[in-house]
């Protein structure tokens, strides 16, 4: 079994990718895939950030085979605690339903930092429209004007449940969308999202 | 690499470090050993452990020596050292009733249940400066040690084990129905102030942790301010317990999944009783504040216990909580105070500029832009 | 105390362990996602005192990797003792390269200045923050301060600015000028001079603010609005810069000058100098006023 622990320099490089993407929502970047990890890319957010102080959760779709669960794999590698979606500090989701997204903690205006960080596995990401993909226009901090983003393999209602759309900002969710090959983008809770029909 | 000569500052730092090392490491006297510091400067070592938030006498002594006796600087060294150490886990909570006392006094009663055990204290030593001939003093100390070694050892454990773990006065007050019961389960896991910054609204465990790690002088000053100064959150305090003793340290063994005792720490523990006389308080009862800190530091533990009960009783809108949480850490206050020595000429220039502009504005005939 | 005493193995010793770095990184991500919000974090004790850049230092140590090139400067000066000390510490702890040239730096840690050079996409500015709370001048109660930020209720700040204007004819706030970030949170712009505030607006670069003593991190992502609080009919004013640097450098009219600091003389007069020493040197070399061969190299190899 391949190592699942992100150490030192590798940990920093993966974090840097997450930091750059959340700084400029909707931009496409690549995870530094030369770090061969024995866990799918959807888990990397937790592998890079979690430790004994962090509670993580995953949804059933993110753990095909189910045993051990994806969050348990991450917990073994990082010392994190496995918990329910409703208590998660980091959530690892594959094809999440709007219902699963709604369970996640969003924080409050007094403590927005309690809102969850969400890593969502998707099939594809592009900056130009693609047939059959979910097409959105992003604006807000980190976006000069507007930025378009096309996503394959996600429920459009899940996308629209991210960002600043639900009206409870500064509460909210900060999300990274990642493909199996490590292409990645982010939608922060301060991002405005408009759906484009295609 | 840039153009500008950035070497000047670096050379100056090197030179300053040399000057520090000259006196501290070489000096004119013999090398100062760590066991000497632990042995003979125990109160300083205990203060460093308390304010550094780390129990280890050797580390504290090392820091104290390096900081040339500056306690706050020593605490800083200890805490910065701690920042470099990985965290493996947390100890299990211990019941403080397990404390094995070396000293215990109960000012509130002449003969409380359990002993009045004066123990080792400077309280009744005459505050007269010893000015012996150094050689004589050294010789008589050696003689005294030799005489003590010849005396048969007293087995203290057998005869006094029950009084070394006495019950506490709060329980006596409870039995007498004289204490309000504030026990609750709303703060079960002690807050870790090294991980989660304590700010107003923090649980009591965070307030107590903050005081346990606070600068001793800052706590005493805040206490006195509440007695004599403008804050007046303290009224009629009697001490219930003042203890210096040992508490066990236990962890879950990572392999055999059992609790194991890995050592003990010395602590000073205090209970402070306040007479409840507020309009909304139960006038028939007392309430008790709690103080506990690493090592032997009664001043600090007493101030802490007093401030704990003062905070419980403080009016809404009182700044006591904020004062305790935000202003008693020695590293915070000293660091910020000392940072004033850093260059500030960029910001000062900006201030001067506004004064100049303000004067020009004053010289103008009117300020119509404002009136609109 | 010296830094070397704290570092048992100066060549490789890390000042922050991996778990502490992760905690700082988690706070950074939240700070970026909520521009201008002060994220609490469990600030670790650093080998430098609180108030001496411990917050900025934790940010830099948490974000840099071996390929990064770090610039550290203080008051615009790379050669200052505190800048030199922090630069040495970062280099020894993380094994990164350092520079004085902000154009080649990937991470720039600064106290009280933003480089005169326009920073680019991918660069990160780390600002050392002594007092992160912009509203402390108008409100001391921390419960109330949190409520004001939570509700975006900045009326007390506006009243204070208005009273300032009425009383003094100008807004007399000097450095650390309060700004509205992303249309939502008022932040303290460390204490950088007002001169340095416009470059933060819709910038290409990421700004991270670290207050170690007060245990807060906040951020301004690239392409984010940073609006100095002022009234529609009272334009925000940066410091007046009218006198050329003592170096003889004359910036053509219409070009951006550089922030000047005053050097008072014994006879009561003053001369002026560019605060940003690296920028000043490069301009002088470019204008033929300075022979680069006369400049000492930085201490990078020391």
Architecture overview:
- The complex is a heterotrimer of chains A (198), B (372) and C (302).
- Chain A is α/β, with parallel strands linked by helices and 198 residues long.
- Chain A has five helices and eleven strands.
- Chain A has a single domain (8-122, 154-189), classed as Bacterial phosphonate metabolism protein PhnH (Rossmann fold), CATH 3.40.50.
- Chain A has helices at residues 8-23, 44-49, 70-78, 98-103, 156-160; strands at 29-30, 55-58, 81-82, 90-94, 117-121, 124-126, 134-140, 143-152, 174-178, 183-187, 192-196.
- By secondary structure, chain B is an alpha+beta fold.
- Chain B contains 15 helices and four strands.
- Chain B has a four-stranded antiparallel beta sheet.
- Residues 1-6 and 367-372 of chain B have low confidence and may be disordered.
- In chain C, strands 1-9-8-5-4-2-3 form a seven-stranded mixed beta sheet. Chain C has a three-stranded antiparallel beta sheet with strand order 7-6-10, with no helix packed on it. A two-stranded antiparallel ribbon of chain C has the order 11-12.
- In chain C, strand 2, helix 4 (81-94) and strand 3 form a beta-alpha-beta unit.
- Mean pLDDT of chain C is 89; it is low at 1-12 and 298-302.
- At the B-C interface, helix 1, helix 5, helix 13 and helix 14 of B face helix 1, helix 2, helix 4, helix 6 and strand 11 of C.
